[in-house]
Design a protein that fits this description.
Blueprint lengths: L14 E5 L2 E4 L5 H14 L6 E2 L8 E7 L11 H17 L17 E8 L5 E4 L4 E10 L1 E7 L7 E5 L4 E5 L7 E8 L5 H6 L6 E10 L13
Bound molecules: 2-oxoglutaric acid.
The site of 2-oxoglutaric acid has 7 residues, from strand 12.
Length: about 230
């Protein structure tokens, strides 16, 4: 499988700490990298039978589900998937180094479980939920933007933001952190035009890919509590 074309980790990205241990990194993937990621998802999804969201209030199609340690998927997982997980963690650590968040961020995340969802532009939604089993998670977005919401128990109100193509959201998805998240709707006609030129089918979708770690993760610095 193809390697990433440019050493993204050398560049600086905009980031936003949406709340404790929820960090959004903007424009991490260039358009060629977004194209490459979409092609990798499509190629990998040939090994998987698509399934509809199980929850009646959500509307998306699961196109990919890999347990990275399963024999069945050995040699079928594109190296790009691991590369972009590493890039997200490296960038996150590099960009937030001066802030209090950096000490909570794990310094590496080898995904245990990789999934990808496709949301139709018309009617795509994801019911608010707290993840189970997961530890930290890295989410990439492609295609149309999603109106994404997050809320931790410490917040009075949920925060909504536009999760755009090429952005990454990294957060503590453990049951302990109880970070509720969901998608109210997909924002039509928001695919970058250069991406549509190469992948016209993305006009109809918002695509996400999730990299989850199950089990223990070491934070980059030992701390004696949370903020
Ligand atoms: O599609 C997304 O970006 C989010 C997916 C998600 O929240 C989940 O898999 O729990």
């Amino acid at each position: 499988m193809t390697k990433l074309e440019t050493p993204t980790t050398n560049k600086s990205v905009q980031y936003e700490i949406l709340q404790h241990n929820v960090i959004l990194l903007r424009d991490v993937l260039t358009i060629p990298q977004q194209v490459q990621l979409w092609k990798c998802i499509q190629e990998s999804s040939r090994h998987y039978k698509e399934t509809r969201a199980r929850n009646a209030k959500s509307n998306f199609i699961k196109v990919l589900s890999f347990s990275t340690d399963a024999k069945k998927w050995k040699n079928k997982i594109p190296s790009m998937f691991y590369d972009i997980t590493d890039i997200a963690v490296l960038l996150l650590f590099k960009e937030t180094i001066a802030s209090s968040v950096s000490k909570f961020v794990p310094n590496s995340m080898h995904p245990t479980y990789i999934t990808s969802f496709k949301y139709p532009v018309k009617g795509g939604t994801l019911t608010e939920h707290v993840d189970v089993k997961s530890n930290w998670v890295v989410l990439y977005s492609l295609g149309n933007s999603a109106n994404f919401t997050v809320k931790s128990p410490q917040m009075q109100q949920k925060k909504a933001f536009s999760f755009n193509s090429g952005d990454v959201l990294v957060f503590d998805a453990s049951e302990k952190a109880k970070i509720k998240h969901g998608i109210t709707h997909i924002i039509e006609d928001t695919v970058p035009s250069a991406l549509v030129d190469c992948c016209p089918e993305l006009k109809e979708w918002r695509v996400s890919i999730q990299f989850r770690v199950f089990g223990e993760l070491k934070p980059s610095k030992t701390t004696s509590g949370s903020e």
